Amino acid sequence: MSGGSGGFERGCPVCRIPEEGGECPVCAWRLDGDHFLGGPTEEQLRRDHQALRTALDRWDARALAALTRPGPASSDGEPAQAAPCGGTSWEHLLAELVGQPGAALWFVELTAERVGLIKATTDRDGIPQAQDAGGAPWDLLVPGFAADPATRAFQLAGGIGELPAVDRTALDDGVRRLLANLLPPEPGPRIVLLSERPDWLLPTRAAAVLRSLRMPDAEIGPAPGGTTGVRRLLRAAPLRRDHELLLAAVEDSGAVRPQTRLLFRAGARLRPEQTASMAVTVHGGLDDDAVVSLPILAGRDTPSGGHAVATYRVRLPALRPVELTFVLRGPGEVEVLLPDGSAAEPSGPADVAGLIDSLPSRLRRPPRLDLLLAVELSYGASPEEVAERLGFAREVLALMAGERQDTAVAAVGYYDHGVRESPYTPQRTLLRTVALGTPAAALVALAGWQPLQRHQDTVSALEDALGALRLLAASTAVAPPAERRVLVLGRRPPAEPATYGRVPACPLGVDWRRELTALRGSGVEVLVRRDGPPHDPVTDRVGRLLQQYGANAWAELGADGVLDQRYSPASAVRRLLPVWQVEGAPCALALAHPLL
Question: How far is Cα 372 from Cα 102, in angstroms, rounded to an integer?
């Protein structure tokens, strides 16, 4: 790697520093030896040449070692530290930038590509901005640099090898002219020296040129340059304004108002590469999987007076809480993490005033709900048939217990006319009844219900259950008004009041159609969930007639609504609960508090 003379007539022949004297201050090569009479001998020339060759190889090896040392992207993750100059700390410079309107920081960057200038300012709310203010690549400052980035890095580190050496004096002059043209006139703003590789020889000389023109207020390195690198450094600036999350709140009157939740208080600052986080629980609105906006505001006097420094869009389940984590990386840089730890997708700039104007004017709370359950407890081939119905009913009740506080539940369990609950029970007792109460109380009562096997698979005692439900519904028709709904969970149709063909009759002569009409006439909506046809296969004309009777009966029972097998307990709850009345457009913001 030795042998490049570079055409220098003065200065150090090893590192090419244009210095004179007894010893090179950079590489320690002896510049001025002992004087002697007469010319050097061949042996002296040979020794001198060998010493120079060894020094040149050692110098290039030093440059290669500098290339292999960890730079600003080192794996240890240690952030670059700012060295104060002239008694001004880096923290003080950042506080000035954020705290003084119109303040600016000028970064003189020395990277592997160029000498440049980056201007850092803040917007009206103290959010730092960085913009390129000019510069020049090394090969425009002085000729002699290789086009290959790796070779150019070797030259910047001071290496020479077989290449013509870069003229150090010309380089100093080129850097001086560039900075004199780019730097603002004095008295000017604060200057920060940002060196990507301060251990490289030529950037070190360029830094010395800067100091000769103007002493920087702080020096940082090794650190990546460019506007991206400067923005990373500016993350350590304090927050000028509170950072808040914009939400919607529903007042007791139903009026919808904007509301903010404090995330990070003004004055907070992070250490280099540090983050801060805040967990916030938001609530979904009326529509399931609705996409809502999460604007993060800074610098507001009123919610509509702020602007969004970041906006995210997330899907929220209806009427459900979701905990989100907001991660602060610097002023105006906030990331949102979903419950599974994944990052929410940012959206474009948000029109805060437009979002607020689009909020619905009012959400009218629905009336309370009285839910009346009827569950068939008889089975044919397997008790799992009843277990599935009871499991569905319990899940519905568990969800309702968590959804709202103004839901009351009553329940009737019914069997087959040919089944008695015990040998000591009269034939007339075919029902299990739970009085109107809370969903939690109904859950406890249903835990004691047991299935019984039927004697026939044609009809059930559903007509008796409808009569019991009518009486329960009459007892709930009191103030405050409520929406009342019946949900029937069964497989077999009710019996006829008298024998009709092969359809068995109700021993008590109860007319299920009359009971159904009475329920609906009192304002009760009747919904059904039939879990399948009877197990007995249809093999003859009589079987087909019985099957047709069952289909017709269930069609009459389900005239108000049918919850087929596609309905999950959650979707059934949404169908059963009274509907909110929305005045205006759907809410585009997450809710600060639960609706229920």
Answer: 69
Helix (H/G/I), strand (E/B), else coil: 118: strand
d(CA 527, CA 468): 16
Tens-digit pLDDT profile for residues 12-33: 776 776 766 666 767 766 656 5
| Residue 409, pLDDT above cutoff 50 | yes
What's residue 490's pLDDT? 93
Evaluated on CA atoms 445, 448, 453, 455, the torsion sign reads negative
Query: CB under 8 Å to 85, separation ≥6 — which residues?
Result: 215, 216, 217, 218, 219
What is the three-class DSSP state of 331? coil
pLDDT grade, residue 482 (50/70/90)? confident
Nearest to 234 by CA among 96, 116, 347: 96
Q: Which two tokens stand for residue 397?
A: 């009740």
Count Cα neighbours of 149 within 13 Å in the Cβ-side half-sphere: 4
Q: Write the Ramachandran bin of 532: left for phi over 0, alpha for psi from -120 to 50, otherwise beta.
A: left
Task: Write the burial class of residue 397 (CB in 10 Å: 0-12 exposed, 13-18 middle, 19+ buried).
Answer: buried
Contacts of residue 221, defined as CB under 8 A and 6 or more positions apart, other chains included, come to: 72, 80, 193, 194, 195, 196, 197, 198
DSSP secondary structure letter of residue 20 = -
The pTM (predicted TM-score) of the whole model is 0.70
User: How many angstroms separate the CA atoms of 220 and 547, rounded?
Assistant: 86
- Sign of the alpha-carbon torsion through 467, 469, 473, 474: positive
Cis peptide before 507, with omega less than 30 degrees from 0?
A: no
Q: Which residues make Cβ contacts (< 8 Å) with residue 258, sequence separation at least 6?
A: 246, 247, 248, 249, 303, 304, 356, 359, 589
What does the alpha-carbon distance between residue 485 and residue 409 come to, in Å, rounded to a whole number? Answer: 10
How far is Cα 349 from Cα 281, in angstroms, rounded to an integer?
Answer: 23
| Gap between the Cα atoms of 99 and 101, Å rounded | 7
pLDDT of residue 300: 66
CA dist., res. 551 & res. 496, Å (int): 14
Residue whose tokens read 């709904």: 485
Kindly state the average pLDDT of the residues 320-344.
95
**Beta-bridge mates of residue 82:** 220
Q: What is the pLDDT of residues 526-578, one digit of tens each?
A: 999 998 665 555 567 777 888 888 889 999 999 999 998 889 998 899 899 88
Distance of alpha carbon 484 from alpha carbon 482, whole angstroms = 6
318, 286 contact by CB (below 8 A) = yes
Mean pLDDT of all residues in the chain? 84
- Three-state SS for 228? helix
SS (H, E, C) 463-493: HHHHHHHHHHHHHHCCCCCEEEEEEEEECCC
The single-letter DSSP state of residue 408 is E
What residues have CB less than 8 Å from 428, skipping those under 6 apart? 508
75 pLDDT exceeds 50? no
In contact, 241 and 195? CB cutoff 8 Å = no
Hey, what amino acid is at 307?
H
Compute the distance between CA of residue 349 and CA of residue 366 in angstroms, rounded to an integer.
35
